[in-house]
Design a protein that fits this description.
single chain, 227 residues, alpha/beta, Rossmann fold, 2 domains, 6-stranded parallel sheet, 9 helices, 6 strands
């Protein structure tokens, strides 16, 4: 019986984490002859996007994506983080098994990622151990999802009101954080000035920001892990 082949994409800008994933995959492979992994790695949004496009053209049609959320944005500014790469992988690849990892441990951010990507695995990096990775791989292959202990704790303690930012909200926050003027945003986003102002007011309401200027909004967005 031929082993089931998986094209594995690891996108993480921490070499030690990448090495840990590769080691766990190879160990699992050696002890499970019914599985075969073809592994490739990337370290930022640009190289990650290239790997996803390359995987789409591969003859292997089962995919696993290990994805760091906190990645340097793409040079063209279209991919702001690993979250956008996760959405791209779900759009282009047939039924990919996505394992998200992040250093963030904020209720709002974790819940937002779960809503937007709905990954088969979700790890907080401080939870990662060799045994944790083996459990993750086994679970996402046989009976997903797998959440590390901190994710489970955050989900139990999450606030009652949902706090979800879409791509446009995050793009507005990002552009404001790098100094883009409000009047220039319609040339970057497919939104009118009125639509952008409405979104910004809604963001201030969600973040409970009372001040008229944007500084406090950006401070709160950064504290919540959106910047």
């Amino acid at each position: 019986m031929n082993p089931k082949k998986y094209f594995v994409i690891i996108i993480d800008d921490h070499p030690l984490i990448t090495e840990a994933y590769v080691t766990a995959l190879k160990y699992y492979n050696r002890h499970n002859e019914s599985i075969s992994f073809s592994i490739d790695t990337a370290h930022d949004c640009d190289s990650g996007r290239q790997l996803i496009n390359r995987a789409l053209k591969s003859e292997k049609h089962s995919y696993i994506v290990f994805l760091d959320i906190n990645l340097p944005q793409s040079k063209d500014g279209k991919i702001l983080s690993g979250e956008d790469l996760g959405l791209l992988a779900k759009k282009l690849l047939p039924n990919p098994k996505i394992i998200v990892s992040t250093t963030l441990n904020n209720n709002y951010r974790v819940h937002s990622i779960l809503k937007s990507i709905d990954p088969e695995g979700f790890l907080i990096k401080n939870d990662i151990t060799p045994l944790e990775l083996l459990h993750t791989i086994q679970t996402i292959l046989k009976d997903p999802p797998y959440y590390s202990k901190t994710v489970i704790k955050l989900l139990r303690n999450q606030v009652v009101n949902e706090f979800i930012l879409d791509h446009f909200d995050r793009k507005i926050l990002y552009e404001l954080s790098i100094g883009t003027r409000m009047k220039d945003l319609p040339s970057i986003l497919p939104l009118s000035n009125t639509g952008i102002e409405k979104r910004k007011k809604n963001l201030k309401r969600m973040f409970n920001v009372k001040k008229l200027d944007d500084r406090q909004l950006l401070i709160m967005a950064k504290e919540k892990g959106f910047l």
